[in-house]
């Protein structure tokens, strides 16, 4: 009975049904406050996860290297084990997957280290975690601190008034604007890294993947079913090989 009374005291009481506009206004105000509070808790969780990563760094004391191990490789393995141990400890307590926790810890560290304006906006309830993740994911390509700061300042202000989906489209455009290197240079560099690879799968049906220019990829994925059937027959008969695919990228 006490619990029921306590909940009743905290629950917004409905006003007269004859004034639905006032009722809606109070509901919107309550939900707005709740969203801000949730965002603050999300920021606290991100901060705590980032601090957990710092604890893992302290746990990795960089002790003596075991015989037969390279020093650099040993330090890397030791640091990875410490991070995994911390993630496993948190996952056990929160009934979560340890790999998921390890990924979230990495995201939290990056958010605090590279996106301070985004984290502050999240902590103050001006944006939510979905906004923060969009800003973070799109801004990962920006390595130059000045460009990242300009990008973050513009996108965070936009995110305070828009849904995450719209923020993503705007963030992509803004990230392109502040890129210090022209698009033509980045395209040439990506062209040098183009590749095709095949992953063996059961039943003699390999999975072929490619990293190639957009026009070639679009053309090859929008052909008619008849064209795909013809290519499949050529592949099965041995007339179409991986070298043909690579040659199409040259």
UniProtKB/TrEMBL annotation:
The DUF222 domain, residue ranges: 74-200
A Pfam family this chain is assigned to: DUF222
InterPro entries: DUF222
Organism of provenance: Arthrobacter cavernae
The protein, known as: DUF222 domain-containing protein
């Amino acid at each position: 009975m006490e619990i029921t009374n306590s909940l009743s005291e905290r629950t917004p009481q409905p006003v007269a049904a004859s004034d639905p506009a006032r009722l809606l206004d109070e509901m919107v105000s309550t939900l707005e406050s709740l969203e801000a509070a949730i965002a603050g808790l999300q920021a606290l969780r991100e901060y705590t996860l980032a601090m957990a990563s710092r604890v893992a760094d302290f746990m990795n004391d960089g002790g003596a290297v075991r015989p037969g191990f390279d020093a650099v490789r040993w330090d890397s393995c030791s640091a990875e084990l410490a991070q995994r141990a911390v993630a496993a400890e948190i996952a056990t307590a929160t009934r979560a997957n340890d790999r998921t926790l390890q990924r979230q810890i990495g995201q939290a560290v990056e958010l605090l280290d590279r996106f301070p304006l985004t984290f502050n906006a999240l902590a103050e309830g001006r944006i939510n975690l979905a906004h923060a993740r969009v800003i973070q994911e799109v801004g990962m390509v920006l390595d130059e601190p000045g460009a990242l700061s300009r990008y973050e300042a513009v996108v965070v202000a936009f995110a305070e008034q828009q849904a995450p989906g719209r923020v993503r489209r705007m963030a992509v455009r803004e990230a392109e604007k502040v890129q210090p290197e022209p698009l033509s240079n980045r395209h040439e560099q990506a062209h040098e890294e183009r590749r095709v690879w095949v992953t063996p799968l059961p039943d003699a049906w390999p999975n072929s993947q490619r990293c190639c220019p957009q026009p070639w990829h679009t053309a090859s994925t929008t052909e008619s079913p008849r064209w795909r059937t013809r290519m499949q027959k050529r592949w099965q008969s041995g007339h179409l090989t991986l070298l043909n695919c690579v040659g199409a990228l040259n």
